[in-house]
Amino acid sequence: MVLRIFFPQCCNQADSGLLVGHWMPGHDSAVVLAVIHYPFIPGQVKQYLQQMRSQSGVELSVLGSWSIPKEGQEHMESFLRDLSTIFPQDCWLQLSRTIGKMGFNCHVIYQDLNGSTTSCKAAKKNGKIKGCDRESGEDNEEELGDEEKMILIHYEQRKVMQSQLHPIEVPDTDPPSELREVFQTVARSRPLFFLDRYDDGPLKSTHWQSQGREASIIVELLKQASVPLCLLISWLLSKWTRICNFSLFNLYPLRFLSSKLSTCDQWSYRTEHMRTLSSVKPAAGHTPFMRKANILVSLLVDVALGVLLMSWLYRDNRISIIANALLPAADHVAKELEELLQWLMGAPAGLKMNRALDQVLGRFFLYHIHLWISYIHLMSPFIETILWYGGLSACLGITFALSLLSDMVALLTFHIYCFYVYGARLYCLKIYGLSSLWRLFRGKKWNVLRQRVDSCSYDLDQLFIGTLLFTILLFLLPTTALYYLVFTLLRLVVVMFQGVLHLSVDIINSFPLFAVGLRVCQPYQLAEGVKFRVLCEEPGTALHLLMEINPLKCSAVVQRYRVPTYSCYPKDSWAALVKKLFVGELIYPWRHKTTKSD
Amino acid sequence: MWRVLGSSPSADKTWKVFWCRGRGQNISRVMPREMGPDGAPGQVVPWRKVLWEHQPFPDNYVDRRFLEELRRNEGIRQYRYWAVVKEAGFVGQQLSSVAIFITLWLYMEQGLLSPERLLLTCLLSTLLGYGLHQTLTPLTKSGCELRTRLADLQSATIFLSFTFGFSPVLKTLTESVSTDTVYAMSAVMLLAHLVSFPYAHPSPPGSLSLNAALFASVCLASRLPGALHTFAMLSCALLVFALWPCLLQRLREYAPNQFTGLCVAVCVGGVVGLASQSPGGAVLLALALGTVTLFCPLLLVRLQRHKDNIHGPWDEAEIHEELGHILHS
Amino acid sequence: MHQRQRAGALKKSSSQKCPEAPADNFRGSTKKHSICMVSDFFYPNMGGVESHIYQLSQCLIEKGHKVVVVTHAYGRRKGVRYLTNGLKVYYLPLQVMYNQSTATTCFHSLPLMRCVFVRERITVVHAHSSFSAMAHDSLFHAKTMGLNTVFTDHSLFGFADVSSVLTNKLLTVSLCDTNHIICVSYTSKENTVLRAALNPEIVSVIPNAVDPTDFTPDPSFRRDDRITIVVISRLVYRKGIDLLGGIIPELCLKYPDLHFLIGGEGPKRIVLEEVREKYQLHDRVRLLGALEHKDVRGVLVQGHIFLNTSLTEAFCMAIVEGASCGLQVVSTRVGGIPEVLPEELITLCEPTVRSLCAGLETVIARQRVGSLPPPESIHSRVRTLYTWRNVAERTEKVYDRVSTEEVLPLDRRLLRLRSHCGPVAGSVFAFMAVLDFLFLLLLQWLVPDRVMDVAVDATGPRSMWGQGSSIKLNATKGAANPDLFGE
C-alpha cells in the first residue's frame, strides 16, 4: 500500500500551519490544497471549512499539520500531535521540513475508532522501508502486515487549476481515474483560494495566489459592455430569420438553388455562428466556451482577411480588368472544347469507334457549345457590374468572397457539367445494361430479395434478344466510354478547383485558432496527461516526485476543437470515388448537408 | 516389421504395403515402444477402437484391426466401349454442326449462296423439324406443361422481327473492328459454345453455350455484305444452335436408332461440306471427330482399370436424399 | 501375442510403483522441455484447435515445462503477449491469405521463426492443424534447424477429389521427416497414416478433452412441459445443417411439444430460417446466432437431447460437452464419433433424415417414459473420460520419446524426401530444403546464434512468473509512466 500525497509547490516555503485538502476515497491518496497558518482558533477553521465545503462541493478537511521548525520550537512535536485530536481524522499527516534539506519528513498517524494510534514513519533505512512502530498498549510485538510507503508528489497549483484534462468526456461507467480526480478537486476548490495571506481575516493561508487582478477587472468590464451588442445582433438575426422563413423563399426552385450555391451555405453557416456568439448566457463548461472563443477568433480573422482583399480589389480599377479578361477566356474555352469534339468525331488517338454513334454524339455536343457561346455573349454587358457588387461581399469575410468565386466558376462552366451529365448517364446506362445482360449471358440473374446472383433458366427468345442486345451494347461501349472519359476529365478539373476553394473556406471556418493559440502560449491549459520527475530520493525521506503537465498534441488540439462544419471533403474514399467514376455515377463538389461532421 | 519399413528408404507407400499384407498377418508381434497411459490389468484384453476407455496399450499402438474399415473402389461403374462411343457421337455431331454453320457462312461470304435461298431452306427445314418435333412429343407427359402452338408462333415472330429490325444495326456494328479480331472472337466464342454445351440434357440449351454461339454468329454475320445476308445468317444460327439440339434430344429419347444414324449423317455432312471449301479443315475435323468419338472412349475404358479409390469412415458423408422438397413442395 | 503380454506385465509392474493420477506429476519424465506450439489458429480466434492449444499449454506449464505459442498477428494484436500463467504468445507479422491461414513461400518466415526458436531455447516444435500453413512452415524450418518436431492433426480429409490429392501430397512432404504425429481419434489416425503414407507406429492417438467443470448439468433449467433438442454447431454444410433442415419439420409435425434450440452462425442459417418460415415454427425453433464459449453451458442445460448432424468429424467435442451437461446425445455415425462416447450415452444414426428421425424418436420415447439416466449420472460418467491433464501427460510422453530421437541431418533428410514423396515432389522439396538450409546459414552468418538475446522465462523451471512477484516501485529517472496511478 502506497500513500500518495499531492502537495502544491507554492506551499514549500509556507509558515507552519494546518494542511487543508481532500482525501480521495478509494485511492489512498490526498490532495493538499492550502496551508492555514498559526495562530488560529480551531472553531473558526472548522466553520471556514464548512463554508468552503458548501461553496465548492469538495469534501475539504484538515489533513494534518505542516511545520518548518525554527529555533526554540522543540515542543512543536507534541503540539502537532495533539492537534490531531482536535480535528479527528482516520489518518493524520505530519509533514515537516528542515531548512537546507530537500526532502520532507512525513509521519502518518492512524487513529482507530477505539482511540489507539499507530504511527508510520516514512523513513528509510538501508533502502528498505521500515515497519511501523506502534504506540498502542495491546500488541506491541505484532508488526504491521503491509509495508507502508509514501510518495510526495509536488504539483504546480496554478497550472493544475487552470488546465483541462483530456479527453473531456469519459464514460460514466468507469470510476474517474485518480489523476482526473486530482485535477477536478483542485479546479473545484477555487473558492478556497479567495482568502489569502494578505487578507485581514482571522485566518491566513498560503496557496496559489491569484495574479493579475487588474486584468480580470478589464475582462469583466468588457463582458458587461458586450451584452447590449449581443442583444442588438440577436435582434437583427431574428429579423433575418423571419425574412428567410417567408414562404416565397421556400418554393421549390429557390430552395433547390440555394442549397446548391455555396454562398448561401456560407451565409446560413455564419448566421448560425452569430446566433451562438450572441447568446447572452455565459458559456457553461469548457467545451462550449472553447467553441465560442474559436468561432469569435475565426470570425475576426475572416473579416480582417476579407477587408484586405477588398482594399486590394477596388484599387487601380482591377475589377474591370478582370471582367474584360473573363469574356475572352470563356470564349477561348468554348473554342478549345469545339476542337476537342471535332477531334473525337474523327479517329481520336487511332481508336476505331462506331462511326454512326460517334457522329450523333459529336453533333449533339457541338450544338450545346453553340448554345453556350450565345449565353455568354448575352451575359457580357453585366459581368463587370456583377463582379463589382460581388466584390463587396468580401467585407463580410474572405470566406464569402471565396464562396462567391466558387459559385461563379460553377455557373461559368455549366456547359462542361452538362456534357459530363449526358456522358455519364449514357455510360451508366450502358454499364448497367451490360452487367445485367452479362448475367443473362451466363444464365444467371440478380435476386433482389436475397441480394445475390441466382442461376436461372431463361426461355429461348429471352436468350436470343438478350444476346443480341448484349452484342450491340458491347460494340458501342468504347465510343460512349471515350466521350465519358474526356468529359469526366474536364469535369474533374472544375471539381478540383472548386474543391480547393471549399477546402480553404472550410479551413477558415473550422480551424480552432483560439485553441491553437492557447496551446502555443499556455500549453498547460490543455493537458493530455502528466509526467513525473524524481525530485529527490534520499534515504530517510519519502520519495519526492514533481508532477508536470503533458500538453495536448497540436494535431489532437485541432481535431478536438475543430468547429463542426458541413464537410466539404469528399464523402467517400479514393477507392469509392474511382469506383463511382468507373460505374458512371455522378460526382459533385457540393457539400453534403446530411453529413454534418462534429 | 514396421520399424524396418519405416526407416528403410524403399518404404514409400508404407500404407499400401501395410493394408495389402496386414490383413492376415499378426502384426502385433513387434511391440512399439511404451508410451501412453497404462492402467495395466492383469490379463490380456482385446483392443477396442474407442477413446473413452483407458486401455492398456500405448498411444501409438497398432492393432491388427488397424485400417480394417478401408474399402476400395466402392460403387464403381464399368463402361462398355460401344455404349460410350454412342454417347460420344453426340459430341461429334455438335462439332460437325458448328462446322456446317461455318461452311454456310463461307459460302455466303463468297457469294456462292444467296440469302434468299438460305432463308428458304431454313424455312423449309424449320417446318419439317417442327412437324417431326410435334409428332415425337408425347401427348400425355406428366410434370411439365406443354407449350401451345400459339406460344411457338409468338416466339418465332419475336425472333424474326427482332433479327430483321436489328440486322442493319448489326451490319455496321463491327465495321471499325478489324477482321482478325472478329474472327478470333468468333473462334473463341464457338469454342466456348462447344465446351459449355450441356451434352447430357441439350434441351433447353444451356444459357452460356447458346449465348456464346449467338454472339459468334452475330460477329460473323456482321461481316457479310448486306443486311439481308445478316438476317439470313442469324436465322440459320438460330436453327443450328437453338432448335436443332431440341429436336435431337427428342430423337435420342424416342428413336435411339435413328438418332445414331442422324449423328453419323451430320458428321459426314460436316466433313464433306467443309471439304468443299477447305480440304485441310476437313481433315482436321475428321481427325477431331475420330479422336472424340473413337479414341477418347477407348482411353476411358482402358484407364478404368487403374482406378484406385480409397473409402473409409473418415469420408465426408454425402446427403443422398433430395431435401429440396422440404422447402419447395 | 506373447510380446503384448509381456508388455502388459511390464506396464503392470511399473504402474504398481506409481499408482494413479495426481502423483503422476512427479513420475516418469523428470526431463523438462521447451515447447513451441505453432499454429495459425489461436486466440482471439475461437474454435477446437485454439482451445486445444491453450488448454494443453496450460497443463504443460503446470507440469513444469516451458511453453510458448507462435501464431500470426490478428488485427491490432501483434507482438508478444502474455496469457494466464505467463503463457507467452508471439503474434508474428505474417500476411493472412485465406480463412485465417497465412500465405506461405516456405522461406519468408524463417528469420522470424529462427529468432523465436533461438531466443526461447526451444527443444521441441509442436505444430497444430493441417490447414495451417504456418504450422507446416515451422515444421520445415525446425527440421532445417535440427529441432525435434511433433505435429497434431485435428481434421479428416477425403481422397476422392483433386484438391485433396494436392493437399495430401503436401502433407506427405511435411510429415515424412517429422518425428511424431498426434491424432485425436483412431479414425483420424487411419486417415492421417493413409494421407501422409506414414509408419503407423509414429502416430499416437490422444483425444481432445473438455473441462468438465465448465459443463455441469442443472435440470432446473429444463422445461417439463416440453422436450427440447439442442444443436450447437457452426451452420455450414459439413455440419449437416441440410439434414437438420429435414429433421425439424418432420419431428415438429409429429410431436407438438418438441422444441429446437439452435446455437451457431454460418451460411446455412438461411436453410433453417426458410424451414422455420415455411412450417410456421417461429415459437418452437429458436436460432440463437453465434454463441460465446461461456454461454454454451447456459444453452445446453435447457435441453433434454443433444443432436449432432455432422457429416465428418475427427473428434466431436460438442457431443462430449452435451453429455457432460447431462443431455442424451444423438449423433451421426461418421468419422471418429463412434469412438468418443460409450454406447449407453449416445444414439448413433446413419447420416440420413430418416435414420436420425428414428434415433431421435426412440430417445424421445424413452424420455417420455422416464427411462433415460438422470443428468447427474451422465455427467459423473463423462467427467472423468477426457481431461486436459490426461492429454498433457500423454503428450508429455510423446515429447519424451521425441527428445531421444535424432533429427535427420540434411543428407539423410534429402534422401528421405526423395524416397518417400515420389520423384517429382520429393526432388522439388529436397531442393527447397537445401535452399532453406542455405538461407539459415546466411542468417546465422549475419546474426550468429550466440549474439542473440535469450528471452526471459515467464514459465518453466526457472521462471520469473513463479517466484512470488512483488511489485517493486521503480521510479526511474526522467519521465515515469502515469499509469502508476492506475486508470
Automatic annotation (TrEMBL), chain A:
Q: Which UniProt keywords apply?
A: Membrane, Transmembrane, Transmembrane helix
From the record, give the transmembrane residue ranges.
295-314, 360-380, 386-405, 417-441, 463-486
Looking up InterPro entries in the UniProt record yields:
PigQ/GPI1
Which terms does the UniProt entry file under GO BP?
A: GPI anchor biosynthetic process
Task: Write out the GO cellular component annotations.
Answer: endoplasmic reticulum; membrane
In its keyword annotation, does this UniProt entry include Transcription regulation? no
The protein's matches in Pfam families, at most eight in alphabetical order, are given as: Gpi1
User: Key word Membrane present in the record?
Assistant: yes
Q: Any idea what this protein is called? A: Phosphatidylinositol glycan anchor biosynthesis, class Q
Species, as recorded: Takifugu rubripes
TrEMBL record, chain B:
Sections of the chain in a coiled coil: none
The cellular location(s) given in this protein's UniProt record come to: Membrane
A single GO cellular-component term from the record reads:
glycosylphosphatidylinositol-N-acetylglucosaminyltransferase (GPI-GnT) complex
The UniProt record lists the keyword Plastid: no
Protein name in the entry: Phosphatidylinositol glycan anchor biosynthesis, class C
Q: Native species of this protein?
A: Takifugu rubripes
Residue intervals passing through the bilayer: 230-247, 259-276, 282-301
Which keywords label this protein? GPI-anchor biosynthesis, Membrane, Transmembrane, Transmembrane helix
Q: Describe which pathway this protein belongs to, using the record's wording.
A: Glycolipid biosynthesis; glycosylphosphatidylinositol-anchor biosynthesis
Q: Name one GO biological process term.
A: GPI anchor biosynthetic process
Family of the protein in this entry: Belongs to the PIGC family.
Q: What is its main location?
A: membrane
> Which gene holds the coding sequence for this protein?
pigc
Topology versus the membrane: Multi-pass membrane protein
Automatic annotation (TrEMBL), chain C:
Q: Which family does it belong to?
A: Belongs to the glycosyltransferase group 1 family. Glycosyltransferase 4 subfamily.
Per the UniProt record, the lineage of the source organism begins with: Eukaryota, Metazoa, Chordata, Craniata, Vertebrata
Membrane topology designation: Single-pass membrane protein
Q: InterPro entries from the xrefs?
A: Glyco_trans_1 (IPR001296), PIG-A/GPI3 (IPR039507), PIGA_GPI_anchor_biosynthesis (IPR013234)
Gene3D superfamilies, A to Z: Glycogen Phosphorylase B
Source organism: Takifugu rubripes (Japanese pufferfish)
Domain Glycosyl transferase family positions? 220-345
Q: What is its main location?
A: endoplasmic reticulum
Q: What is the purpose of this protein?
A: Catalytic subunit of the glycosylphosphatidylinositol-N-acetylglucosaminyltransferase (GPI-GnT) complex that catalyzes the transfer of N-acetylglucosamine from UDP-N-acetylglucosamine to phosphatidylinositol and participates in the first step of GPI biosynthesis.
Matching Pfam families: Glycos_transf_1, PIGA
The protein's matches in PANTHER family, at most eight in alphabetical order, are given as: N-ACETYLGLUCOSAMINYL-PHOSPHATIDYLINOSITOL BIOSYNTHETIC PROTEIN, PHOSPHATIDYLINOSITOL N-ACETYLGLUCOSAMINYLTRANSFERASE SUBUNIT A
Enzyme Commission number(s): 2.4.1.198
Q: What class of enzyme is it?
A: transferase
* Name the record gives this protein: Phosphatidylinositol N-acetylglucosaminyltransferase subunit A
Q: Name one GO cellular component term.
A: glycosylphosphatidylinositol-N-acetylglucosaminyltransferase (GPI-GnT) complex
The PIGA GPI anchor biosynthesis domain, residue ranges: 72-161
Q: Give the location in the cell.
A: Endoplasmic reticulum membrane
Q: Which reaction does it catalyse?
A: a 1,2-diacyl-sn-glycero-3-phospho-(1D-myo-inositol) + UDP-N-acetyl-alpha-D-glucosamine = a 6-(N-acetyl-alpha-D-glucosaminyl)-1-(1,2-diacyl-sn-glycero-3-phospho)-1D-myo-inositol + UDP + H(+)
Question: What are the TM regions of this chain, as residue ranges?
Answer: 424-443
Keyword terms of this UniProt record:
Endoplasmic reticulum, Glycosyltransferase, GPI-anchor biosynthesis, Lipid metabolism, Membrane, Phosphoprotein, Transferase, Transmembrane, Transmembrane helix
Task: Locate the region Disordered.
Answer: 1-26
The pathway where this protein functions is: Glycolipid biosynthesis; glycosylphosphatidylinositol-anchor biosynthesis
Please list the GO biological process terms of this entry.
GPI anchor biosynthetic process
